[in-house]
Structure formats: structure tokens, C-alpha cells
Amino acid sequence: MWKVFGEEGVMVQFGPLWKERMIELSKRRKDRARFLELLEKADITHYLDIHQRLHVFRMDLPATCTKDDVEFLKSFVQRVIKSTEYPMVDLDDEEQRAALVISAEEAEDEHTSRMSGWYKMKQDEDRKRQGN
Q1: Please, is 50 exposed, middle or buried when counting C-beta atoms within 10 Å of its C-beta (0-12, 13-18, 19+)?
Q2: Distance (Å, rounded) from C-alpha 48 to C-alpha 95?
Q3: With CB atoms 3.0 to 4.6 Å apart as the test, which of 15, 38, 39, 125 could cross-link to 44 if both were Cys?
Q4: How many helical (H) and strand (E) elements, i.e. helices and strands, does the chain have?
Q5: Quick count: other Cβ atoms within 10 Å of Cβ 34?
């Protein structure tokens, strides 16, 4: 059975389960209030990189969060992970490779940026044709 920090779950629930377990494991920690405040703002997702056999948890914070907030979260989560007896993810009591990515950048709309480049190129080509 899959587990996140010792709690059984199915892979599609790993993001919310990770968040729930971090809340539980952070009890009695200094600066917990700040951690919980930032965690509530975060969108936590999980995916499995099957090529690298790596579970990736992604914590996306609003763009209003500062570099200091990201550094604080990184440090806080590292302390929690080091102090717990459970691996971040395990399958049938065998620890799996896992990583956490913390970001406070706004997601770029790749489609819009690609299309705007294409439209600019098309306009340039149309101008050249009209000039000939």
C-alpha cells in the first residue's frame, strides 16, 4: 500500500494527503502559525515521474509571497522531514524517491506566449509581402 508520511492513501490524493500530514507533523514546532498561514495559501499537487522513479510534490504559492516566505517554507519542511520517522512516500514499507518543489511564480500561459510569437512573425511576413 502507498503511504505519505506513514498515512495510507491512493496516488490521486497524495497532494492533499501531503498537506494534511505536514499539518499533523508540524505540531509543537516554533513558527508553526506562519507555516500554516503559508500552507493554506498553497496549492499542493503531486505527480510521479516514471522515468526517474521520483514522486514530485509541488507547492505553488501566490505570486504575492516573497523569497523570504519560500525560504522559510523550505527550511521548515526540511526540519519536519528530518525529525519524522516516516519517509515522504513509501510503497509496501519500501521508501520511494521524493522531492518537493516550492514556487511563488505565476504560471506562464505557454499557448499565449507561443501564439503571440507566431502572430508577430505572421504580421512581419505580411508587411514584407505588402512592401514588395
Answers
A1: exposed
A2: 14
A3: 15
A4: 4, 7
A5: 13
Amino acid at 39: L
> What's the gap between Cα 129 and its chain centre?
47
| Nearest-angstrom CA–CA distance, 93 and 99 | 18
d(CA 66, CA 62): 9
> In this structure, are residues 26 and 80 in contact, taking their beta carbons and an 8 Å threshold?
yes
Give per-residue pLDDT as tens, 37-56.
999 999 999 999 999 999 99
- CA pair distance 74, 17, nearest whole angstrom: 18
Please determine, looking at this structure, whether the domain spanning 2-107 carries the CATH number 3.30.300. yes
Say what the pTM is.
Answer: 0.75
Q: Which three cell numbers stand for residue 60?
A: 505553488
**pLDDT digits over 8-42, tens only?**
999 999 999 999 999 999 998 999 999 999 999 99
Phi, psi for residue 29 in degrees, rounded to 5: -110, 145
Pairing status of strand 54-60 against strand 97-103: parallel
